[in-house]
Amino acid sequence: QNRSVRGGVLLIHEWDGLTLRVKEVADAFAKVGYAALAADLYGGKVGRNRSEKLALVRATRADPDGITRNLNAALQALRADPQVEGHIATIGWCFGGGIALNFAIEGEHHEGTAIFYGRLLDDPELLKHIHHEVYGTFAGLDRGPTVDEVDQFVAALRSAGVPNNVHVYDNVEHGFWLHVDRDPAINKDPA
Fold first, then answer.
1. CB neighbour burial string for 98-134, b if at least 16 within 10 angstroms, e if fewer
2. 3-class state of residue 33 by DSSP
3. What pTM, to 2 d.p., does this model score?
């Protein structure tokens, strides 16, 4: 195609790996004019049960430099695409949300981070290394991160001078944004 796109989105999967659902979200971004690249931090593996998912998370987190290298390479691929005009941001869910936050601190420069119920930090000294806006979407009924943890995160972002737009949706569970079909009576549409 010989057309420019709005910008780029680097998608970071949740704890089970690069699943069909994450690929569908990447396709949805592409349909509205973004270059979308779904990173695979597990090298093609997908967890089918809790124990497999935990093993994949632990193995991946054991090599934080490898995570950063992988995401830097994905970011470079997006930047190298001559059709990509505009900014590039990351978006991650659960495990991927926490990874997106860490990448905002440790990775190459990019222009935005969107976190969907991921592992948070509350240290302003670490967060002050983020030089772009952070968007956060969280579930009010989530046990991790809790609303208290989200509040501490927002306070730390503000203390560090990081622009942010964080919202907690009250009556929804963890995973509500990516998996609206889990409880259709409550999770009617993506946020």
1. bbbbbbbeebeebebbbbbbbbbbbeeeebeebeebb
2. coil
3. 0.88
